[in-house]
Amino acid sequence: MKGCLCLFWIALLFCQWRIVAGQGEVWKVYINPRFGFRVEYPASLKADRPPDNGDGQAFHSADGKVRLVASGGFLVAFTFEGLWQQDLERYGNSVTYQKKGETSYVVSGVLPNGVEFYRHLAVQGQNFADFEITYPHSEHAKYDRWVERIARSYVPFLQGDFDRVH
Questions:
Q1: Smallest Cα–Cα separation from 59: which of 80, 42, 81?
Q2: CA dist., res. 114 & res. 153, Å (int)
Q3: I need a labelling partner for 75 at 20 to 30 A (CA). Which of 55, 84, 115, 125 fits?
Q4: SS3 sequence, the chain?
């Protein structure tokens, strides 16, 4: 019985390794120690210097064409609805997709300069967590897969003792 169970775990690990290797990308996980959100990102992206206040992390590609920013904060001077409206105004006619729920929203599109963006924001109590990735629309076939994985893996509010207002 133990031998079968051990064989099962080895096979499972091998399958997971193959999936990651088959995608040609190694991924890392960033967990924000202050606000408690989690996001996966390609290991090829390099972390910028973290902000002094610890509210998030930015990452960029070696050529500077791709940028991922994940952050958290308090809804002190903002409301969920206000942030939604601010993003719609900020991106204007460039928005090609928008979806708003009770506690989160997504906006994405292509800016006039050819930069594609995807922004996800979530709220819980008086806190928000968000991420935004930008990349050349001309290379969307490659980066759309990244967006899908980042969005699937994103956890805006982990359980634990984090800096939150309830």
A1: 42
A2: 26
A3: 115
A4: CHHHHHHHHHHHHHHHHHHHHHHCCCEEEEECCCCCCEEEEECCCEECCCCCCCCEEEEECCCCCCEEEEEEEECCCCCHHHHHHHHHHHHHHHEEEEEECCCEEEEEEECCCCEEEEEEEEEECCEEEEEEEEEEHHHHHHHHHHHHHHHHHCECCCCCCCCCCC
Structure tokens at 57: 């992390």
pTM for this model (two decimals): 0.83
HSE-CB at 142 with a 13 A cutoff on CA atoms is 11
- Residue among 119, 127, 131, 126 at smallest CA distance from 155: 131
60-66-72-78 Cα dihedral, nearest 10 degrees: 140
pLDDT of residue 166: 57
Rounded to whole angstroms, the Cα distance separating 68 from 66 reads 7
Query: Each residue's pLDDT tens digit in the chain (166 positions)?
Result: 544 433 333 333 332 333 333 357 899 999 999 999 999 999 999 999 999 999 999 999 999 999 999 999 999 888 999 999 999 999 999 999 999 999 999 999 999 999 999 999 999 999 999 999 999 999 999 999 999 999 999 999 998 878 777 5
